[in-house]
Amino acid sequence: MKIGELVKRSGLSAHTIRYYERIGLLPYADRDQSSQRDYDASILVWIEFLGRLRTTGMPIREMLRYAALRERGVGTETERRDMLEQHRARVRIHAAELQAAILVLDTKIAGYAGQEQRMKDYDTAPPERRRKPAGTRAARAR
Predict the structure, then answer these.
(1) Could you tell me what percent of the chain has a pLDDT over 90?
(2) In whole numbers, what is the pLDDT of the chain averaged over residues?
(3) Is 136's pLDDT higher than 70?
(4) Cα 40 to chain centroid, rounded
(5) What is the rounded CA–CA span in Å between residue 26 and residue 63?
(6) Residues 6+ apart with CB under 8 A from 2
(7) Which of 74, 79, 7 has its CA nearest to residue 39?
(8) Distance of CA 48 to CAs 25, 38, 64, 88, Å?
(9) Measured over all CA atoms, what is the biggest interatomic distance in the chain, rounded to whole angstroms?
(10) Whole-angstrom Cα distance, residue 23 to residue 21?
């Protein structure tokens, strides 16, 4: 498939695809007779995996390390698995931190919703205010 088709199917820009090739995240594409890049459809699976790593916050330098191990093939499975397990642990910690932040936001939003309801209740039926009888004073603490 030509780069234009890969752009459509992967969601990456042509610039990003060329950049990923240049830095080693994507293997260099074969060239057709007119020297245009010609990608195998299997690259879409790799691009999707890279997107997942990027979404989960893996730095490019780690993605490059993983890609280099993948390129070396058999014998690197243990190291690749270890990398992914360590990354997964970091992602889980980050997900827990985000969940805690969401809870704080939910609590704050609920507080505002409660305030809005209190204001609506006040607007429809303001509390009855009574005047103190003349000559009364609040008791003083001694």
Answers:
(1) 61
(2) 88
(3) no
(4) 29
(5) 11
(6) 36, 37, 38, 39
(7) 7
(8) 12, 18, 15, 17
(9) 104
(10) 6
